[in-house]
Design goal:
Type 1 dockerin domain, eleven-stranded antiparallel beta sheet, alpha+beta, elongated, 6 helices
Length: about 260
């Protein structure tokens, strides 16, 4: 009897640990999007030309979280280089696939990596306009994700309150943007150029529970307050309680709150 009880305790413990280890990543995915701002970084160009310098901060961006590799986990993002580096001329979107490196329920380490091969001759601005055949672009971001108190998005990009902060983790090994190509679009070794952005500093915000999941009062939990708000607005066209934005507060919105009741608690 005691041995069976001990086994039950071990199994229950393993289950609880398993739930905890996925908690931060699940919370990030549940939010549906993250806000992100590039703060600073250095760049270096080598090969046919030699140049280096620094980048100032960019405008904050919002990244919808997607399932780009069809693995059933919506944590991937499309990194739009035209938004990140608007003056350079790299009009590409790099699909960054997420990998949860670790998640102990308190801190998650999440890595996003991706690459593409445009093989396209374009004009880029490196202080002067030059033609470059871009052959390869690769990027990586790695974040330490931890909880913060429910609060409005400090970067001003998300329409909901957030509960998670993202900061760089892993240094230049996992936070970089590299590009390779040929100067003047001449595919010869003497024209080869390599560019990299490194020593990157950035911040991000995410998590929380969107209205679409029943958090109509934006307090980061689906509870009695949301249920009562939907019930009091039932039959009206109140946008705040219309979880699916179909123009009416009805059974569908009530069911959304009920199905997600307790989320965030």
């Amino acid at each position: 009897m005691q041995s069976r009880k001990a086994v039950s305790i071990v199994i229950a413990t393993l289950i609880s640990v398993g739930i905890a280890t996925a908690q931060i990543a699940n919370e990030l995915a549940r939010g549906g999007s993250i806000s992100w701002q590039f703060l600073s970084g250095e760049y270096e160009i080598t090969g046919a030309i030699s140049q280096s310098g620094t980048f100032d901060n960019s405008d904050p961006l919002a990244f919808p979280l997607q399932d780009l590799n069809n693995d059933g986990v919506a944590l991937d993002v499309l990194l739009d280089l035209a938004e990140l580096l608007p003056d350079v001329g790299l009009n590409y979107q790099v699909p960054l696939i997420a990998t949860v490196v670790s998640d102990d329920g308190n801190t998650a380490i999440i890595r996003w990596t991706g690459a593409l091969s445009p093989n396209q001759c374009i004009q880029v601005d490196i202080g002067t306009q030059v033609e470059v055949l871009i052959t390869n672009v690769e990027a990586s971001l790695q974040a330490a994700v931890t909880r913060i108190a429910c609060q409005p998005d400090s970067l001003g990009q998300l329409p909901r309150s957030v509960t998670l902060q993202l900061v760089p983790n892993g240094g230049d090994t996992y936070n970089y943007l590299n590009a390779q190509g040929y100067l003047f679009c001449i595919q010869q070794d003497f024209a080869r150029v390599n560019a990299r952005i490194f020593n990157m500093d950035w911040i991000g915000r995410g998590g929380g529970i969107p209205k679409s999941l029943g958090n109509v009062n934006d307090d980061c939990i689906v509870d009695d307050a949301d249920l009562l708000a939907v019930l009091f607005a039932f039959g009206s066209n109140s946008a705040a309680e219309d979880t699916n934005n179909d123009g009416i507060v009805d059974d569908a919105d009530l069911l959304t709150v009920l199905f997600n009741f307790g989320a965030g608690g």
